[in-house]
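Would you mind writing out the residues of a protein together with its fold in C-alpha cell form for me to study?
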Amino acid sequence: MKSSLAPGIRLITAFSRDSWYRGFILLLTFLFYTAYHLSRKPISIVKSQLHRNCSTVIQPADLNITNNATWCDWAPFDQDNYQTLFGVLDNSFLVAYAIGMFISGIFGERLPLRYYLSAGMLMSGLFTCLFGLGFYWNIHSLGYYALIQVMNGLMQTTGWPSVVACVGNWFGKGKRGFIMGVWNSHTSVGNILGSLIAGVYVSSAWGLSFIVPGLIIASTGILCFFFLVEKPEDVNCSPPQHHNRVEIPVNGDAIHESVEVMEENAKAISFCGALCIPGVMEFSLCLLFAKLVSYTFLYWLPLYISNVAHFDAREAGDMSTLFDVGGIVGGIMAGLVSDYTGGRATTCCAMLLFAAPMLFLYDNIGQRSIGTTIGMLLLCGGLVNGPYALITTAVSADLGTHESLRGNSRALSTVAAIIDGTGSIGAALGPLLAGLISPTGWNHVFYMLISSDVLACLFLSRLVYKEAQGWFGQRHQSRGYNEF
C-alpha cells in the first residue's frame, strides 16, 4: 500500500515558489523593522530611572548622601529641569531622524537596499550600545548622550524607506491594506519587546537596557546582508501587478490592457517629482500631526503612568505596552476597512476623529482603576496608531506605485521618505512640546494631542470629499488607493 504524501510536504507544495518568497520577504522585513523600533524604545523606559523619587528608595549604609531628594538620580538629570533635559534627548534623536529621512529616501533609490539596510542596522546597533555604555563608563555629560542620539537618529533613517520599498516591490495592490496592516504591527511589536527588554535591566543596570537591544539590531543587520532579496526579478519570480487592468473598447470588443507600463531603465524620481504625485502632500501633512500624537505617547507614556498612577519604572513600562497592543489591532483594522471601502483617507479621518474624545476620557478617567487603565490604553492605542500605520505603509506604497509613474517603482523609497520624514517633524515636536508643557499639568499635554488629531483630520478633508464623491456617484473604483 502506497503511503500518502507527508502533511508537511503537502503544505509546502500547496504554495507556489513565488508565494514562499513573498512570505519570506514579508517575515524578514518584519524582523528588521521590529529591531529598529526595539532599539528606540529603551530611552522612554529608562527616563523614570534616571530621575526618581529618591525618598522612597532605600539608602545604602556606606553611601555619603548630601541631598536626600536626588541622591539616587543620574546626573545631569538630577536637577529640577530634568523634563527639559529629557526633551533635549528626545529631540536630538527625532530632529536628526526627520532631517535625515528626506535624504535617506534619495539614497535608498540609488543604492542596493541590502547593503544600505545592513549598514544602517549595524551602525544603529553601535550607537544604541554606546548610549548604554555611558552607565558603565560613568558618563554624566548631556552633550555625550545628545550626540549619540543625533547619530542614532540619522542611522535609523535607513530603515523605513528601504523596507517599504522592498515590500512594495514584492506585493501588488490587491489586499495591500490588510497585508501591510498586519506587517506594520512590527512597530508595536518592537515597542513592546523594547519595553520588556529594557524593563528587565532598568532597575539594576540601565546600561543593559540599551546594550541588549543594540546587539539585537546589529544581529538583524547581519541577517539582512545574507538573506534579503530586493526584487522578485532577482530570483526569477514574477513581479506584482501594481495597477488594475482596464477595458479598452476596440471595434466593439473589450480588450483588457494594463495601465501599467514597465520601464526597464527607469530613473529614480526626483524629490519635487514625488511631491507632485496626487495625495502625497495631504497625507504627509496629516501624518505630521498623527505622528506627533503617536510619538508623544511613545516617549512620555511610561513617565506619565509613573507620575500619575505612581507605578515604579518597570511596572509603568510594562503597562505602556498595552498602548502598542492596541496599535497592532488598530493597524490591521485600518487596513481591512480601507481595502474593503477603497477609502484610505476616510478610514484615517474617522479613526482620528474618534481618537480625540478618547484621549480626553483617558486623561480624566483613565487612572480610576486598573481595568479602566487597560481598556483606555488599548482603545487609544488602536485609534491613534491605526491611521499612522495605514499612511506609512499601504498609502505610501500606493503612492509610490501611482499610475502617473507609469510603472516606475523607483519612486517607492522617495515617497515613503517624504511622507515619513514630514511625519517625523511632528514626531520631534510632540515630545518637545510635552517636555515643555508637562510641568504646567498633564491635562495641557492631552489638550495639545487632541488639537493635533483634529488638525490631522482637516488636512485629509479634500481627499475624504473626493472619496465620498466616488461612492455616491456610483463609480466604485477597485479596492485600494484612488487617484485624487
User: Anything to note?
Assistant: The longest strand covers residues 245-250. Confidence is low (pLDDT under 50) at residues 245-265. The radius of gyration is 24 Å. The CA atoms of residues 118 and 223 lie 8 Å apart.
